[in-house]
Structures are given as structure tokens and as C-alpha cells.
Predict the 3D structure of the following.
Amino acid sequence: MRILAVDPGSKRIGLAVSDPTGTIANPLAVLQHVARLVDAAAVAQEAAAQGVGLIVVGQSLDDEGKPTFAGRQSARFAEALQTQTSLPVVLWEEGFTTQDARAARLQMGASRKNRSGHLDDLAATVLLQSYLDARVENPK
């Protein structure tokens, strides 16, 4: 089953999709934030186009495991997304995905010029890969 990951942000929304086996995450796209319902409809449309069976939305949590301000916005986005699709939508802790994406870009040897710009699709990829890895470690 393919899985779509969403890294919602205040300016852009990063998307990543898994391979058909649900093992490897790949960057997919970056959408510009418009409004919650418009964004949710665009993500639902992309999920349908990719033929996914599950959508994972990144949610940031504080040190006590409670949603941060951005995490509460992610939860509201997930609720809006659920109204746009019949696919299951789950929240997944996204701790440090942008920092991990930046580190990955450094490890790939990207020049300083190529390291600038958005990391939203890579952050979504890191988010999705952590979800996929957790599924392997803790199958239900």
C-alpha cells in the first residue's frame, strides 16, 4: 500500500509518497498554502492521483508530548483533510524533520547555493520514512 505524508506549514505544504510496498519514502511535491480547506482538497486530490491507501500528517509535539501551536494547526488540517477524502488520515509526530532534511542535504554534498530554499518535500520524506520504519518495528 502506498502512503502519502503531509508536512503542513504556514507557507508551504510538503508532500512525500511511499513506494507500492510501503517501504521507501520519496519526495513528491510542494504546495503553496492557500487556506485550510483549499489545501486539504489539493492534498486529497494528490492522494487520489497517487493511489494511496493512507495519509500521514506531521504534528509537532512539545517535551511533554502535547501538541505545540503548529501541532494543533496540523490537527485541524487533518480534520479538514478527513472531510475531503474517505482515506484514513493519521497524525504522526514530526520532531525535527526539517533539521533532519537539512542534514541530509549536507550529507549529499549539496553546495551552499543548492542548500538554500525550501525543504518541505524533504521534511515530508523524513516524516514518512520515520512512519514506515516504525511500522516495520512495531507491526500491528
Observations:
- The chain has one domain: 3-137.
- Residues 60 and 66 are 8 Å apart (CA to CA).
- Residues 3-137 form a domain with the Nucleotidyltransferase; domain 5 fold (CATH 3.30.420.140).
- The chain has a mean pLDDT of 87.
